Amino acid sequence: MTKEDSTTIKEPQLSELPGVGPATTEKLASAGFDTVLSIAVATPGQLTDASGVTEAAARKIIRAARDLMDMGFMSGVDVLEKRKSVNKISVGAASFDALMGGGFETGSITECFGEFGSGKTQIGHILAVSIQKEWPGCYAVYIDTENTFRPERIIELAEGFGLDPQETLRHIKVAKAYNSDHQMLLAEKAEELIKEEKLDVKLVVVDSLTSHFRAEFVGRGTLADRQQKLNKHMHVLGKLADMHNLCVFVTNQVMAKPDAFFGDPTAAIGGHIVAHASAFRIYLRKGRKGSRVAKLIDAPNLPDGECAFFVKSEGLEDIEL
Ligand code: GTP
Ligand code: MG
């Protein structure tokens, strides 16, 4: 796969809408209507209030925004065509790549969950390095909520991948998220890096997706609020992945399921909200002799399966199962 294969879907601009000149654009943007999508889903009354256009003009603008966003159905052929722009990011271990159908997909969210030390953060680091092999000069955005991003580890891995360590580091934009609101804001800022700073972002890592949410919303009374916020966050991440054909990789802890008599006694935090928003879910666990086992769960177009590997200083090392 080459750089040419990757297509970033161009988002329509406000200026493409009928009767929306620079002054109206500014008024709309300052009221929060800064994308064609936000206008497509607005009511005429909201646009009238925000920009002072007549209600008839507002209706016309909304209709045009809906046409531009192409919010209707796509044929299966169109979906297949769009799938052709999906790229795969290798983790440098053949059996893991094979498990993922060739690598971690762009255009959707991959969730990795597992106990402490199972290798979630390591995979985040590896992906941030590996994208430089595929698309030299592209960027990774790393949202770090647990203060576990290590530039030293990036240097080591870059050497393992035969890349220039300093160049690799330069192409990773790291931000620490101090709480869940900050984390959500950073996900939105990633969009600005792409649109305003014109960075070719191919990967967004959120490590960990759920730790702040889990710490801030304790007790079942606030669970619905937490899920609602998490849902919004996943939506922003999913849209980023889809609109810019980039890979979103999120990590998630597991909690003990005290009521599980059969099967796996652990469950991912965030439940159905996170599970449904993620196209790919990987369950990581510790295997024998220090190995790690990755299991793919409920992938849309891939068989469930497992692979095993060691985390080595230069990257992942395959183990034949
Ligand atoms: P939590 O964030 O605590 O839930 O764990 P995690 O799943 O993110 O685990 P992480 O990826 O941090 O670590 C997994 C394993 O990778 C560790 O137990 C080590 O065996 C290995 N590892 C971590 N850092 C390094 C490193 O710098 N070099 C090498 N060779 N291995 C490492
Ligand atoms: Mg970690």
Textual characterization of the structure:
- The chain contains 13 helices and 13 strands.
- The protein is α/β, with parallel strands linked by helices and 321 residues long.
- The chain folds into 2 domains: 58 residues, DNA polymerase, domain 1 (Orthogonal Bundle); 236 residues, Rossmann fold, CATH 3.40.50.
- Strand 10 and strand 11 form a beta hairpin.
- Helix 7 packs across helix 8 and helix 10 runs parallel beside helix 12.
Topology:
Blueprint: H1 22-30, H2 36-40, H3 44-51, H4 55-69, H5 76-83, E1 88-89, H6 94-99, E2 104-105, E3 109-114, H7 120-134, E4 139-144, H8 151-160, H9 165-170, E5 172-176, H10 180-195, E6 201-207, H11 211-216, H12 223-244, E7 247-252, E8 254-256, E9 266-268, H13 271-277, E10 280-286, E11 292-297, E12 305-312, E13 315-319
Parallel strand pairs: 3-7, 3-10, 4-5, 4-6, 6-7
Antiparallel strand pairs: 1-2, 8-9, 10-11, 11-12, 12-13
Helix pairs in contact: 3-4, 7-8, 10-12
Bound molecules: guanosine-5'-triphosphate (GTP) and magnesium ion.
